[in-house]
Design brief:
- It is a single chain.
- The chain has helices spanning 63-69, 73-100, 156-164, 166-195, 307-335; strands at 18-29, 37-43, 46-52, 59-60, 108-119, 125-133, 136-142, 147-149, 202-206, 214-221, 226-232, 235-236, 241-243, 247-248, 254-260, 273-279, 286-289, 340-346, 350-356.
- The protein is an alpha+beta fold and 358 residues long.
- A hairpin with a 5-residue loop joins strand 5 and strand 6.
- It is elongated, with a radius of gyration of 39 Å.
Length: 358
């Protein structure tokens, strides 16, 4: 059971009054493109840590969690070995379930869910430990009697075996009612302190082409509780405005944008518009005036295309030359003049041959 010791490292907390922490362990067979074993830590439907038998290492999904656990390589190695050990324990339980359900081939998915709930106003703590098989409830632990509840006849044999295993039952009771809440409270305090951080963004005006909307883009702010909008003469605009979603950056900060359609705005009225960024907990807004001089764009004005005029000029020259040639030939026939060639050197480097007709 030592693999279970990894689970408290996955604890996650959030800001509501009642905090719930769940650990999902899943073993499967016959499922394509899915690992044999995975462990996921989830709080209020938010995944905070992950491990599977393919990657064989723990992945933390929240930046604050990574900072809490730190970069101790020995600790991370212990985490990895604990997960690998519990993989074997859980595999044995899965094989037992399949045998007692008389299931051999096909798809098999066994899931264990253990967790705790803590109300930080009343102090009430609830814990749960249960198993499911192929999406159906299979067996669960009654923490008051320390006996297992078997809703299916196929789980009765497992119930009797586990009821006798007092050390196993005491461990689970301690884990879901003591260890899990203790870790949860510790992580709650760390999470709250991390939320006090505020980072102001850099704000830029962007435009793809002169006819495109102007995008007011803010990046690098934290936390994500922010809003951004365009206003005209001090009044917030709702028409010709498109709001983008708040997106995460790789460093844990966030970015967002809001577009303004200027197709019906004259250049003289641009000075009446401004972009406003507002971060929760910060008194001063970041205001960016709509100014063509500060707009950043990748658009480059195309140079004048002289291809067609050049082609036209060449064509006219050829036609004119042809007309002159015909005229001269006719004239030479009338005068019965002969051709002769004159050669001369230009700067001693170039020899030009001219056919002169008189």
């Amino acid at each position: 059971m030592k693999g279970i010791m990894l689970l408290p490292l996955f604890c996650h907390v959030v800001f509501p009054v009642k905090h719930s922490l769940k650990f999902y362990l899943t073993a499967s067979s016959g499922v394509s493109n899915f690992p044999d074993f995975e462990a996921v830590a989830v709080f209020n439907e938010v995944e905070v840590a992950y491990y599977d038998s393919n990657i064989k290492t723990t992945e933390l999904k929240q930046d604050w969690m990574s900072k809490l656990i730190g970069e101790d390589p020995q600790r991370w190695e212990r985490n990895r070995l604990n997960c690998m050990d519990y993989h074997q324990v859980f595999k044995e339980e899965t094989d037992t379930f399949k045998h007692r359900l008389n299931r051999t081939g096909g798809v098999h998915v066994v899931q264990q869910m253990a967790g705790c709930e803590w109300d930080d106003e009343t102090g009430e703590i609830n814990g749960y430990q249960q198993y499911g098989y192929n999406g159906e409830h299979f067996i669960s632990l009654d923490l008051k009697t320390l006996t297992w509840i078997a809703p299916k006849p196929q789980a009765v044999t497992t119930k009797h075996e586990w009821d006798k295993d007092e050390s196993r039952n005491e461990f689970w009771k301690s884990f879901v009612t003591e260890r899990c809440p203790e870790k949860l409270k510790k992580y709650l305090n760390f999470w709250k302190s991390s939320q006090q951080r505020t980072d102001l963004p850099s704000v830029s005006l962007l435009q793809k082409t002169p006819s495109s909307p102007v995008s007011c883009h803010a990046t690098g702010f934290y936390p994500h509780r922010a809003e951004m909008f365009w206003r005209k003469d001090g009044e917030e605009l709702h028409e010709d405005v498109e709001h983008g979603e708040i997106l995460p950056n790789h460093d844990g900060s966030f970015q967002m944008s809001v577009d303004l359609n200027l197709s019906s705005v004259t250049p003289e009225d641009w000075r009446r518009y401004e972009c406003v960024f507002r971060l929760s907990g910060v008194n001063d807004d970041i205001i960016t005036k709509l100014d063509k001089a500060v707009i950043r764009t990748n658009w480059v004005e195309k140079p004048l295309d002289l291809t067609i005029p050049i082609i036209t000029a060449v064509a006219v020259f050829i036609i004119a030359a042809f007309g002159v040639t015909v005229y001269i030939k006719k004239k030479s026939e009338r005068l019965k003049l002969k051709y002769f060639t004159v050669s001369f050197n230009v700067l001693g480097a170039l020899t030009l041959d001219f056919e002169l007709m008189f």
